[in-house]
Amino acid sequence: MVAQQVSASAWYVEGVSALGSPANQNFISNAAFVVTPGGVVVIDALGSPALAVRLIAEIRKITTQPITHVIATHYHADHIYGLQTFKAQGAHIIAHRAALVYLNSETARLRLEASRQQLAPWVDENTHLVEADEWIDGDKEIVVGGVHFQIKPVGPSHTPEDLAVYMPAEKVLFAGDLVFRSRIPFVGQADSRHWIAAIDNLLAFDTKVIVPGHGPLSTEARKDMQLTRDYLVYLRATMGQAAKNLEPFEDAYKVTDWSQFEHLPLFRVANRMNAYNTYLLLEHETK
């Protein structure tokens, strides 16, 4: 893990394009931090407490300022299992209130149990889910060391609780998992219709650099958001037509032309599941 500079005050670390494993410590997502005269603001906490320790070590190479805030863009495991490390440092954690539903769900409990098995020793019995100190419902601005951060809810999209963070002084947008670069997005139970609309809303920001939730930095906002957007639109068009025609999923998947996406990393791992979840979603939407 090596922090790469994004702008005058911001850095990020880039996770690998792979599934989480003991070999990579679940380092499959990005995290970022902004150094201000009044402290460090971190965006996302990575996928294990050990990774958060490594991220703090990267921060310490650049500044001795205290870590004052952590903004969680959403509560998927690869972005939040490091929160407890930052909490122990006294950071103030901010997230969208919609994450409480997931936090208190059987799904979250079972996911943590599975991670303790699959990602040991990096996720173990000492790893626990951490609630935010501040749950927000709408737009919020924080100012740290004179630096302004605009926090904007953009869910339900990838998750119900998606947040994007914009730093206007340096025109940097931290997009969370609304933007996946150079790999297939994980759609899961996402509301793809709202996700497409949210990407359109993000394009309204005056952005020089986007830090995506996964993949390398983007300096071409429209072009790079377009990959995620085009993929979601294609999923909805193909699977929506199949659902409307009452065509069985297996038949629809087999005859769909995936050639424009199948070269991307994680296509074979994620595409079938993404298509099936979209088929179910569109089946419901068309009733």
Major pleated sheet: 7 strands, mixed
Strand proportion = 15-25%
Helices and strands: which structural class?
A: alpha/beta
Low-confidence stretches: none
Outline type: globular
Evaluate the radius of gyration. Answer: 19 Å
Strand order of the largest sheet: 1-2-3-4-5-6-7
Distance between the termini: 47 Å
Global mean pLDDT: 92
N to C succession of SSEs:
EEEEHEHHEHHEEEEEHEHHH
Number of helix segments? 9
Number of strands: 12
Level of helix content?
25-40%
Report on this model:
This protein is α/β, with parallel strands linked by helices and 287 residues long. It is built from 9 helices and 12 strands. The model has no long low-confidence stretch (mean pLDDT 92).
Topology:
Blueprint lengths: L3 E2 L4 E4 L17 E6 L2 E5 L5 H14 L4 E5 L5 H4 L2 H6 L3 E5 L2 H5 L2 H13 L15 E3 L3 E5 L2 E7 L9 E5 L4 E9 L11 H11 L6 E6 L6 H24 L4 H7 L11 H19 L2
Parallel strand pairs: 4-5, 5-6, 6-7, 11-12
Antiparallel strand pairs: 1-2, 2-3, 3-4, 8-9, 9-10, 10-11
Spell out the key features of this protein.
single chain; 287 residues; alpha/beta; seven-stranded mixed β-sheet; 9 helices; 12 strands; globular
